[in-house]
């Protein structure tokens, strides 16, 4: 038991640069308090003490601002960072090493009692601020959910989900974008997303680069036209360097946008 408590504290010290000491984490981190209160609530729920489990979770909600249903399953080293306004549903499962930020909802879209209504998060998943993960599907190990994303379908391991509704960006070679080399440990990305994870920004960068290239080609064409008009014989024309083949990769950009 004490080893698990130490791992709860250490995971916060590892992932939050604002955490300065063990005592500060124990006394000033509501995410840690929510996890510690959830464990007796979950035990009560699983042993027939439903009301007591709900009462403990209700007290935890009042005390921490984090609402975790006592029926939810939470693994080890789970960090609720800031986490005000987080809601975790009854059949939700959170794997080891997950990080969940403020305003996240792990909710359901079904009203059937006893059914698997809420999502299952794999290991080391990052769910960013304001994200809504809705439904009884799985989010794979090492996946990242961008801020304010609305996820309504499964997310493969290592992939990134961004947007409303969320678009899925697959991982490269089956690995999380947080891992640079297979032999290196996973590098934590705060709030789960970087600029390179946004497909719309990638598409926009591609359009900008293409527009710049077209400007250059148009300038070359005009130079060639001016040379042609100044010459009396076409055989004296110097071939221009303008590209004659279309370079616009519409299919690739469309795939990045996710349509």
UniProtKB/TrEMBL annotation:
GO biological process terms, semicolon-separated: cysteine biosynthetic process from serine
UniProt cross-references to Gene3D superfamilies, sorted A to Z: Hexapeptide repeat proteins, serine acetyltransferase, domain 1
Main localization category: cytoplasm
Pathway info: Amino-acid biosynthesis; L-cysteine biosynthesis; L-cysteine from L-serine: step 1/2
Intracellular or extracellular location(s): Cytoplasm
UniProt key word Acyltransferase: yes
Catalytic activity entry: L-serine + acetyl-CoA = O-acetyl-L-serine + CoA
Any coiled-coil regions, as ranges: none
Enzyme class: transferase
Keywords noted in UniProt: Acyltransferase, Amino-acid biosynthesis, Cysteine biosynthesis, Cytoplasm, Repeat, Transferase
Entry's Gene Ontology molecular function annotations: serine O-acetyltransferase activity
A single cellular component GO annotation: cytoplasm
Signal peptide location: none
Pfam families, sorted: Hexapep
EC number(s) recorded for this UniProt protein: 2.3.1.30
PANTHER family: SERINE ACETYLTRANSFERASE
Family, similarity comment: Belongs to the transferase hexapeptide repeat family.
Protein name: Serine acetyltransferase
